[in-house]
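Prompt: May I have another protein with tokenized structure?
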Amino acid sequence: NGLLFIYCDHLRFPVLTNRVCLLIDPLSNSITEVIDRPTILIVEDNPVERQLIGKILRNADFEVIAVDCGEVVLDTVIQYQPDIILLDALLPDLDGFDVCVHLRENPKSLNIPIIMLTGLDDVISINRAYDAGATDFFTKPINHSLLVHRIRYLLRARLISEQLRISDQSLTNAQQIAGMGYWEFDSERRRLNLSDEVLRIYELNIDSNESHDMSVFYDTCHPEDREQLERTIAECVHTYKDANLEYRILANNTDVKYLSMNISAMRVKGEVSNHILGIIIDITERKKSEQEIVQLAYSDTLTGLPNRSLLGLYVDQAISRAHFSGLCVAVLAIDLDLFNRINNAMGHSAGDAVLQQLSDRLNRLVNCREVSVYLGRLSQNTILDDIPFSMVARLGADSFVIVLPSVNRSSNDVADLALRLNKEFQSPFNYRGQELFVTSSMGVAYSESGSTTTGVILQQADLAMHEAKVQGRNTLREFSGDLVAQVSTHLSIQTDLRGALKNSDFLVYYQPKISSKDQSLCGFEALVRWTHPTKGVIPPDQFISVAEETGQIVELGRWVLETACRQTKQWIDQGLIDVRVAVNVAARQFKEGNIVEVVESVLGLTGLDEKNLELEITEGVLMSDATSSEHIAALRDQGIAIALDDFGTGYSSLSYITRFPIDTIKIDRSFVQDITEGSQQAVIVSAVTELAHGLGYKVVAEGVETQEELEVIRALNCDEVQGYYYCRPMPAGEMTEWLQGRSNVVTLGARAK
């Protein structure tokens, strides 16, 4: 009806003696106060006495409910929830004491004050009343004035008791939610009182109301933390100084719990008393979360090994300790060779299995600690034990590091470890019943002094490892200062390459190929040269590999192809030659450069005929891309010749020359240099030549520099030779003069005949 009810409970507002209901009418803005008076339940079988007591209480401003038997008391209490019960001890149906017991057993009436009305004034009846749960007793005949005062007193007492009960329950709930309990120790009486939450935290089945001693804390304490706990509590008890500490307990002698204890002396009006208060908080979940965070921060999720962060802390401490003892730290960097082939062929789950098995092998091979041991010591500002244990860490992908914390550099410790590692890699790794084999390249670096940093020694070991890969993989290399210079040069070249093409710093040199039978000109090889404006001539073996790594070989390769084709077309138009020009093509040009379209475009742009072009490829091109054979076949179908360069230095040359369409095999200069009749080199060249001729290929011998080498090569039936003996590589202008001079010699010879 549009009325707003505001209900104020005197149990919540102690100032009010009665419950008040305010009725607010929004239409008239009038407020009506309705007093909700305390309710008294009278249980009395004597009707005269019942009416008399009811009248007195109503006159005293109480609401009164009266019943005459014990059977209906509990239902009446549940329905009306009286504030006080006046219960006659002698009832016709049930004994009043039994009724009182039943009331106390029900949660609805557990805290309602009960005054027993009895004519019995003997001690036994009084004790029985209190034992049954009565709050107070009143003897008959009743002093009515005194009864009213007694009721009002009990109402105030109930209010206070209810507030204390609610406060205590709220505190208990808050402590339970927070996992916090407290204890109080009387240092004079040597008495210890524990809260219920402390008992729950410690999982102790003892009475919290009884007095105990400090042994309840010590008996369940973790052995490693007990001494510190005893010392801290004893100091606080004797000196009354505040303290806090974290420690572990063994609940039920098995489960580990982490607790935080704050201890302080209780003060009364600013003065220290003889009571010590301790607050105990269960921080187990927080500790577990912290441990998980630390685990993620300092360990590798796949293998469980230490990661780069933990490795850095370990190496920093190991270096200073080792050099203090006159030793050094050895860092062995390990990187798996061609590991991506496993991931590409069998999926990353296979690669992960190999990495996990490898980490287990490395841990068994080297005397290591578990990661948890190192993490447990982080808070102590040291992760090293008194005994110098080694560490195996994973830096990422397929890169691992082994640290030997105290090594005599003149010893064979690292070499012996490398041998044991090689043996481990000779054993297959297993993935779903399939055996997998991998090898590793390793680099080692030693700390030079106690001031060597982790970053420096890891970088040095990594440089040595990369040098091992450059040297052919599956080997060990030790760091030397020359490697830094090489890397610096590599970075410098990588930077300078970006502007070299724009600045026209590259030149194409040409070296002729001569027939071994009649010394006629059979063709040219186009060779790129780089003249840096400040650094001078940079050898191809320094910048070609960098260009391939960075992808700049695609742009550079097209420029070389176009330049060589244009120059060859010019010589043909001048009538100086009518032979092929050979241009090297890198593997990356096949992968990223659309080599077939590029060649067609260059030939169309320069006007050079397909029969005057030869492309030189290495076995790396054949291995790098499954579609390379299709591209090579398409180029060869157009009339472009294909030569296999550096034959004999690859992985499986004999298989590739039968699988791919080629025209020429070029024998690497390493087989030609210092060749003599009957030597092993001669045997190899002879075998390759016979094999090539049997397959219908021409053979070109590279690197012929002396008359003796030429005679042996000629005797072994090589078709063409290339080398300094006839002509060094020259730029286009000088090569034009060389061709013109050679043309004049040929013309004069013809006239003389």
About this structure: The two ends are 138 Å apart (CA to CA).
